User: What shape does this take?
Amino acid sequence: MSDISSPSRRAGMWAHASNDIPRVVLVLTIVGVALGPLGLNEYWRFVASMMLIYTLVTLGFNILLGYLGQLAFANVAFFGVGAYAATIAMNGGLNFIPGILVGWIGGGIAGFLVGIPALRIRNYQLAIVTLATGELLRWLYIHGGSITQGSSGLEVPAMKLAGYQITTEIGKYWVFLVFTVLCLTVTRNLLRSSVGRAIVAVRESESVSLGLGMHAAGFRILAFVWSGALVGVAGGMYACLLGRITPESFGLTQLLVHFSMVMVGGLGSFVGSIFGALLLTAIPETLRNFPGLEEIVFSLLLIIVLRFVPEGIGGFLGGRISGLRDRFFGGKS
Amino acid sequence: MTAPPKQSVLSVADVSVRFGGLTAVSGASFDLNAGEICALIGPNGAGKSTLFNAITGFARTASGRVFFGASDITGKRPDAIARLGVRRTFQNGGVLKKLSALENILTGLHCETERRIIGNILRLPSAVAEERSSIARAEEVLHDLGIAHLRNVKAEDLSSGQQRLVEIGRTLAQHSRLILLDEPAVGLSATDRANLGALLKRLAAGGVAILLVEHVLELVMAVSDRIVVLNHGQMIASGTPEAVRNDPVVLEAYLGNK
Amino acid sequence: MFAQLVASGLVQGSIYAVIALGMTVLFRSTGVVHFGYGAFFMAGAFAVYVFSQVIGLAFVLAFLAAVAVLVLLGMACERMLVRPIAHGPHVAVAMMTVAMSYLLTGVARFFWGQEVLRMPPIIDVPPIFIGSIVLTAQDLLIIGGCMALVVAFFLFFARTKLGKLMQAASQVPRGAALVGINVPGFHMAMWGVVAGIAAVAGTLVAPVTMLYPDMGAHLLIKAFAAMTFGGFGNLGGAVLGGLIIGLAEQLAGFYISTALIDIFAYLVIIVVLIVLPNGILGKKEATRV
Assistant: This one.
């Protein structure tokens, strides 16, 4: 499995990483991902869109849990803020793109606000504060009066894009696909650049990062803002896909789903995040017909991963594809 | 105007550091010129690492001043001092264990690439070119240290001596004017020590000022232009290796503590 | 009215205090922050319900059975889920307790998620009037039971040899092995003990609140608030914090807005951690991550 000892095979991973994958495979993948859902029924097209959304959610969460190494459980808060912000903006008459941008900015601001206390509070205490933040926000959605419409939630208007109304599942999928690929590319580039190295350096040792001239606090905040913004975009897309958002969607069960996806994918693994999201979204919606079953299945998965494969899927794939492999488990804590 | 032959890079003026009631360093003063290697020696607990920390901003000075070139860096934040071009290693090993050797060296070039978020996320040609040149520079450093073959090995999989070399390489990447090495020879074989000594000499010849904390006296004596001896936070001697070697106070401090 | 609010605040607060105490005891003795402890409490309440209402045991027997089940559950969790990863990063253990929490909640929801479960009071006597304050026998039982647990733990840690040894051992993990404690066994025992406490608390509360799967998650946040408020890892602080949060919640709910009852604890956590990260009794406690 490990090809660490044969460095030549991974030569130039920073500058030419995409060359690791043959061009043909890349092109076929893109075509397959774009056109594949045409062969699916409406329900599976919906699931395909959900996979895109959860890919962004998982990657955003992984930036904090894996790359920055902080137990920050505010992911659902970012998701909800993105969804509500985008919905409110679109109800105010904005088109899809500016609406999503509002979700993006909203998520980023939420990330910033959570990131500030995270400069001082770490570990368990940060986990507790971020859990509390998520629940506090859910309370705000319920008690937000006419802005959030309480427990019944907000109706999301039909997606408007460049003068068209997008109502079909496949139309939504293609729009989401463009945004997802854009976000993934940009995030991959960031994580592979000196910024990504700096975030990992801050995680590994704050003093060393300072000794290298890194603005450690700045990179912490950047990671939180980036994570919040990515998940905020996902939240906006989620609202558009479902057509209605309720406070119930942003509770602890949602958190379990996000958390399991990150852990199954592998902490600090970019490619793992994508696979984690795809696999766990594919666990069919039918689970939701039996209350509690979703929690049971996801928590069992989580337990199995923690107990037997702490590196997740990324642990298997990491060395070959991603530059920033798992760097979380296996080290001293 | 020609540059003066001896240009002061680091000037430590009457620096004291206190932790609570304890005085860890008291009234240390010395200068370091470009191209000079100065070793800081003394028994364990003499305050060598504390003085390092005071110079690099990791410990607060209670009194005294530290100058880097002409600028007063007393009380500045460690990252600000590093950005001015002061690089250091850490006594307990500051290598980033989950990054490869190459990536570790690249983090040493961080200050040159820091403000490029937009360029990086869009992979603008300038950013790509910069990353390429960083990698080229990092490979050069690895080559100089004789560990080019370890390029892609995760630092935690390296031997402790190799980790030290990677950490030293990280301080060299950016052509710093001042390098502080905290026990660089720990875990190195005799050959590696000799190589390290030669490397330090070469760097100094290129104009880099090096401050060294080291227990391996053989290395210290071989490379240092000057030696500062600390004991119980006090500077008890300072001078050429020859002078220090024969200083009765130094002998007493070393032998008395054994 | 004020006196009545104080009384109900103390009833609520003593529950928070016991849960916070259980978490603190586990944290102090094993270094684990138990994110699944709320779910253990929920499981305790459901176990009593199952034994007394479904199986039909007499209350005392149902109570004992529930405690026994929870003690075994706690020990099994330690042995099967925590111990195998205990040598790894502590973050992984914290994550494992999060997973436990969801698993228990999911099981409860799967079997009883649709219906509202009610437990009859443990002792059926008319409410007691003390001046203008009305207290039910159940309220008194809760306060009494919780305080008894608290006192028992304090006596155990302060007076008994084993308790002192445990406290000493918890300061230095390797110290425990040095003084001859079987560390894994000790950890497993502590998991069992605190799970038992959760069962007692669940039993006391079950007749007052209806049973629902998320009751643990809500209580967990309150317990965290109590621990945070009293200084994380401080036994006395956790109990005091629990009582204060219970009181303040009731008062704020009445005098400011009832909606505040739900989020008071969250606000406390956020404000206290940002302003006074070490709590009101705080001195620096090192966490193990």
Notes: Chain B touches chain A through 47 residues (CB under 8 Å). Chain B has a mean pLDDT of 86. The CA atoms of residues 113 and 130 of chain B lie 8 Å apart.
